[in-house]
Amino acid sequence: MSSPKRLENRASLILDLVDRQGSATYVTLAEVLQVSTMTVRRDCDELVRLGRVIKTVGGIQQASAAPYLYENSVRERIASHQSEKRAIAAKALELVRDHQTIFIDGGTTNLTLARLIAVQRTGLTILTNSALTCLELSKGNNTIIGIGGEYDPITLSFAGPQADEMAKSFLIDQAFFSTKGFLPEDGTYESAVATSRVKQVMAGRAAQTVLLVDHTKFGVRALSKVLDISQIHHVVTDEWIKESDLAAVRRAGITAHVAAVTNLEADYVALAH
């Protein structure tokens, strides 16, 4: 059994590493501290109890980070910017053809797209690591493949090494991504570290990638970079996007699709029923 002094030393090292990196996995911490992952988990649980760190899937991240670095729960995000999400989803649906193989991540804009796909498209093979997206898609006439792994209660998605390995076994026509933040000259950013890796894998397995991103996400940098700008082929956004941001997207060689919020939100309601 570890002495109180050793526990204190490990806690100090854990906090130092997380302060420098923003986050860390249990595996990384175990390697650095040269202890078992079980020991690391116990140490981290105590730090969580003290409010020094917060849990992510497979690890921890800073508790004192700026709010934009945190991943809000899906339940919180569903209610925000609904008009923009519906308009963007209706516009993105135009890129989806029957009988394609596609991936859809667990973002709430993509959840809105999934509702349309279930009603408006057939014969698709759809991969997702999102529990909610899977449920929405199950209402349609398409083949759904769930990418499994460790369940993340914040994003309501599956992640971790098992999910990453499973994702590597597929080749897809299109991958539809959402994001926490987007810099048109750089790429996408996320605060949910665990689910980021699945997105990176699927981007590498897709013939085309489509980013669904409302105007509020432009210029936002979160905890970790996920997709490089060179990996994105299409951006679907709303009409409130700044002209400078739209120009930056086009300069990067990306095809931009701009949704008229009022008209396309009405289209969404019609398409979804």
Question: Can you walk through the features of this model?
Answer:
It is built from 11 helices and 15 strands. With 273 residues, the chain is α/β, with parallel strands linked by helices. Strands 6-5-4-9-12-14-15 form a 7-stranded parallel beta sheet, with helices on both faces. The protein has a 3-stranded antiparallel beta sheet with strand order 1-3-2.
Quick tags:
single chain; three-stranded antiparallel sheet; Arc Repressor Mutant, subunit A; alpha/beta; 273 residues; Rossmann fold; seven-stranded parallel sheet; 15 strands
Give a quick rundown of the structure.
The protein is 42% helix and 25% strand.
Biggest sheet overview: 7 strands, parallel
Helix-strand topology string = HEHHEEHHEHEHEEEHEEEHEEEHEH
Fold-level CATH name of the largest domain:
Rossmann fold
Q: If strands are numbered along the chain, what order do they take across the biggest sheet?
A: 6-5-4-9-12-14-15
- Helicity level: 40-55%
Q: What's the rounded overall pLDDT mean?
A: 88
